Give the backbone structure.
Amino acid sequence: MRGALGGPRVLLRRLREVMAEPVSAQERLDKIVVLIAANMVAEVCSVYVLRVDGTLELYATEGLNRQAVHLTVMRSDEGLVGLVATEASPINLNDAQAHPAFSYRPETGEEIYRSFLGVPILRAGNTLGVLVVQNRARRTYSEEEVEALQTTAMVLAEMIASGELTSLAQPGAEPAVRRPVHVSGAALTDAIALGHVVLHEPRVVITNFIADDVQKELRRLGVAIETLRAELDLMLESGEVAEGGEHRDVLEAYRMFAHDRGWVHKLEEAVITGLTAEAAVERVQSDTRARMLRQTDPYLRERLHDFDDLAHRLQRQLLGYDHAPTRDKLPEHAVIVARSMGPAALLDYDRNRLRGLVLEEGGPNSHVAIVARALGIAAVGEVPNATGLADPGDAVIVDGVTGDVHIRPTPDMEAAYVERVRLRARRQLQYLSLRDKPAVTKDGQPVTLMINAGLPIDLPHLAETGAVGIGLFRTELQFMVAAQFPRTSEQLALYRNVLDAAAGKPVVFRTLDIGGDKVLPYMRNYEEENPALGWRAIRLGLDRPGLLRSQVRAMLRAASGRELRIMFPMIAAVHEFDEAKGLVERELTHLRRHGHRLPERVEVGTMLEVPALLFQLDELLERVDFLSVGSNDLLQFLFAADRGNARVANRFDPLSVPVLRVLKLIVDRANAHGKSVTLCGELASKPIGALALIAIGFRAFSLLPSAVGPVKAMLLDLDAGKVERLVASLMALPLGSASVRAKLTAFAEAEGLSL
């Protein structure tokens, strides 16, 4: 390094000595800036720390006026220091005062210095401060000097993150690393949680930053990279990956990055500056994360996840850690924070200690969201950089109702949420008092309230809510959380347990709704351009009849001597229902022939979620025993709007006249044929949605368990005749104002209904 006294490795070793000295935080910082200035032959070295209020404060300096320490404060976008913080990138100038962003602070005495090198102090891609060196003479700092200063900034980042500098701050001006953070995402569950962060894949905690033997660290790095590459090659050659599919594409991308010479060269350069191999990985990845988080290109931002995962694997390889996190020692009130997660991984955690879930990926209809709702925990998805913002043990509030996440909340915020949780608890007690009351409107209209389920953990909700049955049992969840294809005996055991738990209450089993976005890890995945419209559900079942037959046989045997209701998903044509029903009849014949006791009664129905069935209603209703409207899929197909796409999911209001006309057509035709019709889906799980559905003639719903109480409370106070007349008049109006939401809300307020 040009003009340096001993080079970066000497500096890092001396920094390690200073970090170990039993001195105050201010003394340690003062010694550090002196060391850096001397090593880089710089006349000035200064440390600026980002504060909770978003400003930058001068915490230590060698060369500037020391009286300015803790007095000089600037906006985070002010001057060259602010530019470094905002861009999270080094700035190297031989004439700083000529730069348009230059800002002069007279109390520092910096007007005599021309050259400027500033680097961000980064941790997990987040800016914690800025480290600056300056000289009077005009000079451009070498690449090696920039690299050395960035490496030194990494050590400072850990010092700031440790909380050591908090004692130097005025109240309300603490370092931003511990600042309260508010981020918003997609609300996944109707629940609120206060707890402490547990990272699903915890960052590797590096305790040794400074290398004693650089050549040894280079060898360690080389061995770890080769081992990582070999592991990826082995995974790509394994049976289930070798045939192709999206998961193979992901691993191919990982392998490409692992062989990228530019990435490896950066790691080697970081080690040469004096870092240990694992610290070098942390340093390079933090720089990469900071740069990519500021990209607007969604493809580049998506690649950040790949680099994160690759760096995580390499660090664990270097330190000999297992890739799987430990889950058996959760703190009380644990909130899991993860980039992404499958439903099986969530179920691995101790349910008694688990309170919430925060995901960078995963929308309301993702598999893990379904399981989170079944567990009754608060969950929020699509939270940008969640794993980079939170540290293990941080206090966190997860608002699954609004989609808000508060990391390290202020006492006032925490107190407000504690009160909100208490209010919700009191409301739940009120709903509990309604559990055994019949669901009958004020004018005597009975309404059937059932619950959606799919796992054994859902079954206690039947008794807790007072629901009259399970209107939708998603059988695919058993397959999604299993490591391998569930045997017929395992399916039989589950279905029997469900019927036992229902204790005579009706249960509607939906046959496997897999394919599309519901990929089973142990089944070959066929890539499709439009998976929601592709080879899934009953289409897969009819094309692979052995799969459907084994499931139907398990259901029939589980229901021996009892009533059984089987429902087929994604039926698009009457002949598909005929084929599926014929398969049930063949299985009944098989069991009868082999002397098995048969169910007392078998009813066969279908989900109505494909718009094509709207034009086959009469033919379909002549064949089915019952009908269930899958409003989630039906509405997305009606509007050609992917419900998992945040840009279009809320573009159309489900309480619009076109939707209500379609749903009224279904319920009217079902009534004309004397067939029962139930609506399953999110629309029925909100009181205002249930209000609209009652108004057009629906009298049976299958809801989220948490929705039974609020919906029942609303309908007990409802005059159904009044709302029927209101909505009928609204539906007769021209479609200029297509949504009836505002009118229904006003009606509810006037009638004293709780929405």
User: Anything to note?
Assistant: Confidence is low (pLDDT under 50) at residues 1-5, 239-247.
